Amino acid sequence: MRISTKARMNRLFTNGGCLDVAIDHGVCNEPGFLVGLEDMAGVVDRLIKAGPDAIQMAYGPADLLQGRTEKDKPALVMRIDMGNPYNDQRHRVMWSMLQNADEPIIGALEMDAACVVVNLFMLPDEPELFRQCVENISRVRAACHKYGMPLMIEPLVMLPNDVRGGYQVDGDVEKIVTLVRLASEMGADIIKADPTENPEDFHRVVEAARVPVLVRGGGKEDLRAVLGKSATLIAQGAKGMVYGRNIYQHDSPAAVVAALMAIIHYGAGGDEAWEIYSRG
């Protein structure tokens, strides 16, 4: 690993673990994702005070984090692609594209990001969308290698839109492992993976990745269940989480961050994490 890549990875991971709070949901063009993100300056301010390891953002609002003067502020993970698979209604043409196809990581370099993240969508009957993602990753991987930027790939195995709308996650362990293996072979430095339907199976995802695996959160769920599942996933070998709505849509995001940081960095179980949240 190049020293510049390693240096950026060190900004993300504390003793091998990372809580990355995702607030890059504006690129999904889905109104429900923006509940809790109306005041981005306020959200970023609260998250900096809460102290996760990283905040995941798109280029546009990244200055709200990188313009701050705190020496110990969270690292920036920059989302550099966008697409339409998260919308409730199926589109005639499904697509995913880089926000800057000519120089895909230029914005991340400008903003001094510690990492970039790109989707790898696997939707039923959408081979062209999958091809676009592979092409995106190939371009980004080359740029990341040139400039020493860590690449996080987000492999997403999704159910048909008509099952629950908005292409919900398919938790089939065989499908997840297969797509994670593909992301690994394309050169991911970090993989952001969906949880398996049975959290006890997640070690298979970790084994397929061969790089640090962070668990994707998805939609907002019962927090106590989220904390319990998160503790199980860490025990299965995950190195952390990339959670968005399960943090920023709660009344006390800082308390949720504290509970998750205890799980990731101190080995807290689900019940202990719930107590930490409750005290917050």
Backbone CA Rg: 17 Å
Strand tally: 10
Please state the structural category.
alpha/beta
Strand content: 15-25%
By DSSP (H or I, 4+ residues per run), the number of helices equals 12
What does the overall shape look like?
A: globular
* Helix share bin: 40-55%
Q: Assign the CATH topology.
A: TIM Barrel
- Biggest beta sheet summary: 8 strands, parallel, barrel
Count of spatially separate domains: 1
Q: What is the CATH homologous superfamily assignment?
A: Aldolase class I
What's the CATH architecture?
Answer: Alpha-Beta Barrel
CATH class: Alpha Beta
Terminal residue distance = 39 Å
Order of strands, widest sheet: 1-2-3-6-7-8-9-10
Secondary-structure element sequence? Answer: HEHEHEEEHEHEHHEHEHEHHH
Give the oligomeric state: single chain
**pLDDT averaged over residues:** 94
Model regions low in confidence, pLDDT < 50 over at least 5 residues: none
Describe the structure.
There is one protein chain. By secondary structure, the protein is of the alpha/beta class. The chain has one domain: Aldolase class I (TIM Barrel), CATH 3.20.20.70. 42% of the residues lie in helices and 17% in strands. The protein has 12 helices and 10 strands. The chain has an 8-stranded parallel barrel, surrounded by 6 helices. It has a two-stranded antiparallel ribbon with strand order 4-5. Strand 2, helix 3 and strand 3 form a beta-alpha-beta unit. The termini are far apart. The model has no long low-confidence stretch (mean pLDDT 94).
